[in-house]
């Protein structure tokens, strides 16, 4: 028999709890600034559980994009580059550094797609280590990292005659400080790790791991794709060398919005990146015979900055500054705690396994739920406007973007997962009535 709590209880105490949490949530008012979320209006999506993969747009971004096309691009035309646009990658970078990265001005820029920026910074760091000629020929990464991260580094190793040293983490957790200590040494050039693991949601100990890498004399590159905008980050205080992160996840920059890169100030002029485009040159309009890299962070730029792509993220960065990243994190923890409590009570009896850390100190903004039926569960939920995502072979991922997700929405989503899974286990598909 599959237990059925919704029939056993007269009223759902979890829904009462969710509504109370929404009433006392100091960030609840920010949710209404997103498209598709209006009080008293039937939402087009019942529960959006994938804001960690593609964030919702803000209403402010609708206005900002319209205004840019009509008046910015439309009337300033080519003059816009001198007036504003060419500085935008750096002014937004500085604002992001302040709001969410713990980075002083002049170290962050908005650039290329994540995969390309990861290549540029990893390659620059590897080249610098190899150029020392002291046998630092190993790049360290973990087997559970995102495909781009693994494949880009394998490509760099092949290009430069370096080798990869693999860390094999617990798939329901992530890379530990101890594992990094064992993997690094006098042969290490670079360590690349994700701050929050894209599958398990494990939150790596960034300060301790950064110190361990530095004690071995190597550089560290942090992938912040799944942490920026939901977990506080202190790049300067932790002495991080390099970082890259997505802007279309928790920063709501829109599909394919360009990534940000961080290069520690004192490292910038010692590194050279491999894509020598005119926009990274000292004087782009000199257009002379030789490439002379710009001083500072601009040397990591390659081509014309993707200005249209970096418009929307500004509205979320502003919202994070307004709310405070520590408040955002507190809500994120409360949301994942709530989802885990519901998974324990509703889903565990049906054989669902939580494959994320239970300790909130070691967990980011999403959780992973495993069950052999999750592929079918996800497909059915999408037909009913409940949108989690699926990660092969058997995992449903629940991402809870703290600025745009309410506790009631989390409750709706988790209850839908419960009902669809129960229906499938009972040999039916679709949502059960009631
Ligand atoms: C989302 C994500 C990426 C995505 O790279 P794109 O080039 O933007 O497609 C890379 N790495 C990690 C860890 C991610 O979570």
TrEMBL record:
Organism: Cryobacterium tepidiphilum
Example GO biological process: L-kynurenine catabolic process
Superkingdom: Bacteria
GO cellular component, one term: cytoplasm
Name of the featured protein: Kynureninase
Pfam families: KYNU_C
Pathway where it operates: Amino-acid degradation; L-kynurenine degradation; L-alanine and anthranilate from L-kynurenine: step 1/1; Cofactor biosynthesis; NAD(+) biosynthesis; quinolinate from L-kynurenine: step 2/3
Gene3D superfamilies documented for this protein: Aspartate Aminotransferase, domain 1 (3.90.1150.10), Type I PLP-dependent aspartate aminotransferase-like (Major domain) (3.40.640.10)
Molecular function in Gene Ontology: kynureninase activity; pyridoxal phosphate binding; transaminase activity
Origin organism lineage: Bacteria, Bacillati, Actinomycetota, Actinomycetes, Micrococcales
Chain's role: Catalyzes the cleavage of L-kynurenine (L-Kyn) and L-3-hydroxykynurenine (L-3OHKyn) into anthranilic acid (AA) and 3-hydroxyanthranilic acid (3-OHAA), respectively.
Family to which the UniProt record says this protein belongs: Belongs to the kynureninase family.
Recorded catalytic activity of this chain's protein: L-kynurenine + H2O = anthranilate + L-alanine + H(+); 3-hydroxy-L-kynurenine + H2O = 3-hydroxyanthranilate + L-alanine + H(+)
């Amino acid at each position: 028999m599959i237990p059925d709590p919704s029939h056993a209880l007269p009223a759902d105490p979890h829904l009462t709890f969710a509504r109370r949490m929404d009433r006392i949530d100091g960030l609840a008012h920010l949710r209404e600034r997103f498209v598709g979320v209006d009080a008293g209006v039937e939402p087009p999506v019942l529960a959006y559980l994938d804001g960690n993969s593609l964030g919702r747009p803000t209403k402010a971004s609708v206005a900002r994009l319209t205004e840019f096309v009509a008046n910015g691009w439309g009337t300033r035309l080519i003059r816009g580059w001198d007036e504003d646009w060419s500085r935008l990658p750096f002014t937004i970078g500085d604002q992001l550094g302040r709001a969410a990265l713990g980075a002083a001005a002049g170290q962050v820029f908005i650039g290329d797609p994540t995969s390309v920026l990861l290549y540029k910074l990893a390659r620059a760091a590897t080249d610098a280590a190899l150029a020392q000629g002291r046998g630092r020929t190993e790049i360290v990464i973990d087997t559970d990292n995102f495909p781009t991260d693994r494949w880009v580094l394998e490509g760099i190793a092949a290009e430069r005659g370096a080798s990869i040293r693999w860390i094999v983490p617990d798939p329901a957790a992530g890379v530990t400080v101890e594992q990094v200590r064992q993997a690094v040494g006098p042969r290490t050039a670079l360590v690349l790790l994700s701050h929050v693991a894209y599958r398990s949601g494990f939150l790596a100990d960034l300060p301790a791991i950064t110190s361990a890498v530095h004690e071995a004399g190597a550089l560290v590159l942090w992938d912040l794709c799944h942490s920026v905008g939901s977990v506080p980050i202190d790049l300067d205080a932790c002495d991080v060398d390099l970082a890259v992160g997505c802007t279309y996840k928790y920063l709501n920059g829109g599909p394919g919005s360009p990534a940000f890169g961080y290069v520690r100030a004192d490292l910038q002029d010692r590194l050279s990146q491999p894509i020598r485009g005119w926009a990274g040159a000292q004087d782009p309009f000199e257009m002379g015979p030789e490439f002379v890299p710009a001083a500072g962070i601009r040397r990591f730029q390659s081509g014309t900055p993707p200005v249209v792509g970096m418009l929307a993220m500004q509205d979320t960065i502003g919202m994070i500054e307004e709310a405070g990243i520590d408040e955002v994190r507190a809500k994120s923890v409360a949301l994942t705690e709530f989802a885990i409590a519901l998974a324990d009570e509703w889903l565990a009896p049906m054989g669902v396994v939580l494959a994320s850390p239970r300790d909130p100190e070691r967990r980011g903004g999403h959780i992973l739920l495993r069950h052999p039926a999750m592929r079918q569960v996800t497909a059915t939920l999408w037909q009913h406007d409940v949108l989690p995502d699926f990660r092969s072979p058997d995992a449903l991922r629940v991402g809870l973007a703290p600025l745009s997700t309410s506790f009631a929405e989390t409750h709706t989503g988790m209850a839908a997962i419960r009902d669809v899974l129960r229906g499938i286990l009972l040999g039916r598909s679709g949502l059960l009535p009631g």
